[in-house]
Amino acid sequence: MDVSMLETENAATQAIRPSALEMPPPGAPDIDIARAVTPRPILRIAEELLGLTGDDVVPYGHYKAKIALGQIAALQQRPRGKLVLVTATNPTPAGEGKTTTSVGLNDGLNRIGVRSAVCLREPSLGPCFGMKGGAAGGGRAQIIPMEDINLHFNGDFHAITSAHNLLAAILDNHLHWGNALDIDTRRIWWRRVLDMNDRALRNIAIGFGGPAHGMPRETGFDITAASEIMAILCLSEDLSDLQRRLGNIVVAHARDGSPVTARDLEANGAMAALLRDALAPNLVQSLEHFPAFVHGGPFGNIAHGCNSVIATRTALALNDVVVTEAGFGADLGAEKFLDIKCRQSGLRPDAAVLVSTVRALKMHGGAPKKELGIPDCAALRRGADNLARHIANLRRFGLNPLVAINRYPTDTGEECATLAAICEELGVRAVTADHWTLGGEGAEALAEAVTEALAGDSPEVELLYEDSLPLAEKLRTVATSIYGAADIALSDSVARQLKRFEALGYGHFPVCIAKTQYSFSSDPEARGAPTGHVLPVREARLAGGAGFVVAVCGDVMMMPGLPRDLAAERIGLDEAGWITGLA
C-alpha cells in the first residue's frame, strides 16, 4: 500500500470526522481531548518511528494496524531494548493512573530523545460499560483512536470469545453424539465466556427441551478477560505454540479420572484458525504520535494481567526502551508479571516504576473520598504503609523501584513534598509527574529519572518460588511474602484438587491468584497494609494450556456484575453520529 494515499482521508471519512480542535482545558472529558488531536496515518508511524515498511504492517483502516506475524520472527532476532515495568499501589476509587503514567512516560522518553514504545493491554467492553471505564489512558496522556480502542478495537476479544465458545460447543456436541471419550459430566470444567459484565449468567443450566437439545447440565459464563484462551494468546510465542497450547486445555475429566483436552476433542486446530489474526500485535499511537502496542487483555485481579509476550518482544526489537504495565497493584500485577509472564517467556524488567497518588494514599490512610481535595499530610503518612509494602515486595524480586507521583490538580506542594520525603525515608527516589495535565512535557523529569536508572547494570531479578515447590506452598509463599498474610485456608476439596493437579503432572506450574485488587487481603475494605490475615482459597482451576493454576480467593467473581451507577447510561451518539460519554 502506498503510504502517501493515507495522508488524505477518503471522502466518506472526511464527511464525518471533525477538523482538529483547539486542545480542551485540563479536566475536560477524555474523549473530547482525544478528538482534539488528528491521528497521523499509522503507516507513517510504523515507517518513521519503528522502521517498518511494506509487508511488515497490516493496516486496519488509517489509524490502526497489526504487525504482520510473518515478520515478527525475523524482528525478534535483533538485540532487544530495555524493559521498564510500570506497576502501582493498590487501587482506590480515587484512582492511581497506571495506564496514564505508562503513556505519559513513553511520551516523555520520546520527547527527550529516547526511541521508546509503550505496551498495554486491550480494554474489555465489560468495564467500559460498567464502572471502571476504558483503558486508553487519561487527560493528555492517552492513546488514540480512543473510541476504537475501547469499543471492539481490531476484533481480538471477539476472536477469543468465539474460539472459547467453539470449544464449549464442540464439547457439548461430543456429549450429544455418544460421549466416546467417556467424559464425566459432573466434572466438566470448561464454561462459556462473554465480553460483558453479566451476573445473571454466572451459573446457568443448559440442554433442556428434550434429547434433541443436548444433555442437561449445569455450567455458566466467565468474562472473556478471564478466559484461559486470553492467557494463552498473551503467553504464546507464535502460531505453532498457540495451537499446541490450545490443545493442552483441560476441559473435563473422564470417568477414570484422566484429563480430557481440547486436543482429544480435535478442537484446537479450528480454534487456532479463529485466533490466527488475533495473535498479531496491534499498533496505535499516543496523542503525541508516539507508538503504542496494545495487545491482549487479561484482568489483573482474576487473570495474569499482562499484555502479550509477542507484543512486548516485538516492541523490544524495534526500540531502545519499552514501557509496559502490569494490572492493578504490584501485589497482583507485578507478582504475576514476574512469576508467570517472565517465568514462561524469559523476559526480565531492567527497571520498575511504582505509580501512586497523594489522593490514593490519603484514602489508604483513612481519608473519606469526599475529603480528598482537603490537604491532609497526616492521612498521607498513614496511607504510605501501602506504598512501603509494595516497595518491599518489589525488592523481594531484586527490583528497587522509582516512585512516580501521578499529580492531580488538587495536590498541594506540601503534600507532594511529604510524599517525596516518605520515599526518601524508604530508600527510593520519587519524581512528581504532571502528564495528565501536560502530556509528555509533564513526564520529562520522570523520563530522565528512568533513563538514569537504565544506565546502570540491569538488576538480577529473582522469581518468588521455584517450579518444584508444591502448589499449596506456592500459594502460601505468595500470601505470606507478598500479601502479609499469616497463612492460607484451603478447603478439603481445594486441597484434593491441588494434589490431583500435581498427580497429573501439573505441579510445576506457577500459581495465578484471583482476588480483590483493592487490598492485600481478601477483604476489599482492608486498606493500607494489613497483616496477619488468612487468605481463603475457595476454588482451584487448572489452566493446562496457559501453564498455570488459578486460585480463586474470597468473594472475587470470574464474571463481574454491573454497578448501580453504570457508565453505559451516559454513553450514546450525538446528531452527527459521534460517540458521547465514553470515559
Please tally the β strands and state the result. Answer: 25
Distance between the first and last residues' Cα: 34 Å
Major pleated sheet: 12 strands, mixed
Beta-strand residue fraction: 15-25%
Q: Spell out the CATH superfamily of the domain at 156-277.
A: Domain 2, N(10)-formyltetrahydrofolate synthetase
- Tell the overall outline: globular
The CATH architecture classification of the domain at 156-277 is 2-Layer Sandwich
Structural class: alpha/beta
Compute the number of helices. 20
Output the CATH class name of the domain at 156-277.
Answer: Alpha Beta
How much helix is in the residues? 25-40%
Would you tell me which CATH topology of the domain at 156-277 applies? Domain 2, N(10)-formyltetrahydrofolate synthetase
> Mean pLDDT, nearest integer?
93
Radius of gyration: 23 Å
